[in-house]
């Protein structure tokens, strides 16, 4: 079959499928540049850019990924995916990406491209499978699985995962970290006197304060009941104590919207990771420090 006939059959076939697709080819005069030969109807309907708007791969990347940081991430991940596929002897490479469509909507697609072909080897067929709704559902389920329902903080499961990551960074890259265990003072008495709705409001207000005090990269989690854990990466004991005192001071200013309700206060225990400690040992140290803070009269910080 002549190249023109192959092209005609291919383009006709791609034009009737409901999946966005394009065909690109290498420009022998410009190393690495890929021009677009064809864009099917589904591409125009679902993604929106015409061949005139994106004549080559460079213009596609600029339109589909306008944020330069994310664009470079997509390009890097795609190059790695192609290299891995070639190393495994595969003819197709695929990855997922958040594409900006012409109407301004950003949607997740699985992008698959032919990277090796015996017929017309300079041609690449690229398809885009819309998986946005599925991706969002999976992400929402994941978020729910690691989030405390009442406070919207990380739950204990997520905190444990973040602690594992922090310990690995400590062991392999010598990156220090500390933890704070915070416990609401007289919480049972608050619940008994003013009701569980007051107790829930107290936990939510306290959670918001913890989030406001936290730095980027810190993990704030509801550890259980009225107890909260803060994971402080890159923080030695002295810095953890400073953070704990700041948190204690801020929480002591929280006024509950119940008549005659007391101001909140917390007791905080601090501990820092050391080579001989396990994670359980670290949490135990923080818990013992918290116990000393309670024994010292509450509303204080111990290490």
Automatic annotation (TrEMBL):
Membrane-spanning parts: none
Top-rank taxon: Bacteria
Catalyses which reaction(s): 2 GTP = 3',3'-c-di-GMP + 2 diphosphate
One Pfam family per UniProt: GGDEF
Classification via PROSITE patterns: GGDEF
Residue ranges occupied by any GGDEF domain in the UniProt entry: 175-303
The protein's Enzyme Commission number: 2.7.7.65
InterPro entries recorded: Diguanylate_Cyclase, GGDEF_dom, Nucleotide_cyclase, PAS, PAS-like_dom_sf, PAS_fold_3, Rev_trsase/Diguanyl_cyclase
Protein name according to UniProt: diguanylate cyclase
Organism: Vogesella aquatica
Lineage: Bacteria, Pseudomonadati, Pseudomonadota, Betaproteobacteria, Neisseriales
């Amino acid at each position: 079959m002549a190249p023109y006939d192959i092209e005609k059959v291919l383009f006709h076939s791609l034009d009737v499928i409901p999946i966005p697709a394009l065909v690109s080819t290498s420009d022998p005069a410009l190393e690495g540049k890929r021009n677009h030969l064809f864009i099917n109807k589904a591409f125009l309907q679902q993604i929106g850019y015409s061949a005139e708007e994106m004549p080559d791969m460079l213009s596609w990347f600029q339109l589909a990924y306008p944020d330069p940081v994310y664009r470079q991430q997509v390009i890097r991940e795609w190059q790695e995916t192609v290299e891995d596929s070639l190393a495994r002897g595969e003819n197709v490479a695929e990855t997922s990406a958040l594409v900006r469509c012409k109407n301004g909507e950003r949607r997740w697609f699985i992008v698959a491209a032919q990277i090796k072909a015996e017929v017309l080897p300079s041609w690449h067929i690229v398809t885009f499978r819309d998986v946005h709704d599925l991706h969002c559902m999976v992400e929402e389920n994941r978020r729910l699985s690691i989030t405390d329902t009442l406070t919207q903080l990380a739950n204990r499961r997520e905190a444990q995962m973040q602690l594992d990551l922090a310990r690995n960074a400590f062991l392999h890259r010598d990156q220090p970290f500390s933890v704070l265990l915070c416990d609401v003072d007289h919480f049972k008495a608050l619940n008994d006197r003013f009701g569980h709705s007051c107790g829930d409001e107290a936990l939510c207000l306290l959670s918001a304060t913890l989030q406001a005090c936290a730095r980027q990269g810190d993990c704030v989690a509801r550890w259980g009941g009225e107890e909260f854990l803060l994971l402080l990466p890159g923080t030695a004991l002295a810095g953890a104590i400073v953070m704990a005192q700041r948190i204690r001071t801020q929480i002591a200013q929280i006024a509950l919207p119940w008549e005659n309700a007391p101001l909140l206060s917390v007791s905080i225990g601090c501990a820092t990771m050391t080579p001989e400690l396990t994670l359980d040992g670290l949490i135990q140290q923080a818990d013992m420090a918290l116990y000393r803070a309670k024994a010292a009269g509450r509303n204080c910080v111990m290490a």
